[in-house]
């Protein structure tokens, strides 16, 4: 429910919908690369002009909207920003309140070792660890769900030591991706997918056999 999200944030970040409005957080799993992105690129290779992943996600979410012709469906993508440069929604907070992934933050560590350093939080999924992405939000403004029960996300990094290790790795060594394996995962990115996301965006077109 939108109200779960708004309840944990300052008014500047609130979504402008009634509290009982139904919303879905959209995640991409490791298999997205082979099952969605590559087929999309093969089909649309002459139309891709911006970012293949963003356009692939947009394509699939527009198809979801088509499945509900009688409903108003608002889509907010993870990369969208307001004129103020603030993100249109805080993806990790949304994933946490929806019960999709646990958003580990500095406040989840009792004995904070970082002093004045800025420490960013990170979401961990109970099945995929850090090998997933939050892609967007689907909102159904005309559907109110007052009786929907909130489920807490699975706290899969439950010890103090592991949480410190996770935040250390994510903040100071994120390039090596070790934080993604903070728990035992069921599935991770393929080597091809790792190479794709490790490549600067402007050079990714070559990897997919596209010219810019």
Automatic annotation (TrEMBL):
It catalyses: apo-[alkylcobalamin reductase] + adenosylcob(III)alamin + glutathione = S-adenosylglutathione + cob(I)alamin-[alkylcobalamin reductase] + H(+); apo-[alkylcobalamin reductase] + an R-cob(III)alamin + glutathione = cob(I)alamin-[alkylcobalamin reductase] + an S-substituted glutathione + H(+); 2 cob(II)alamin-[cyanocobalamin reductase] + 2 hydrogen cyanide + NADP(+) = 2 cyanocob(III)alamin + 2 apo-[cyanocobalamin reductase] + NADPH + H(+); apo-[alkylcobalamin reductase] + methylcob(III)alamin + glutathione = S-methyl glutathione + cob(I)alamin-[alkylcobalamin reductase] + H(+). GO terms for biological process: cobalamin metabolic process. It is found in: Cytoplasm. Its cofactor is FAD; FMN. It comes from the Eukaryota. Keywords: Cobalamin, Cobalt, Cytoplasm, FAD, Flavoprotein, FMN, NADP, Oxidoreductase. Its EC number is 1.16.1.6, 2.5.1.151. GO terms for cellular component: cytoplasm. This is Cyanocobalamin reductase / alkylcobalamin dealkylase. It comes from Corythaixoides concolor (Grey go-away-bird).
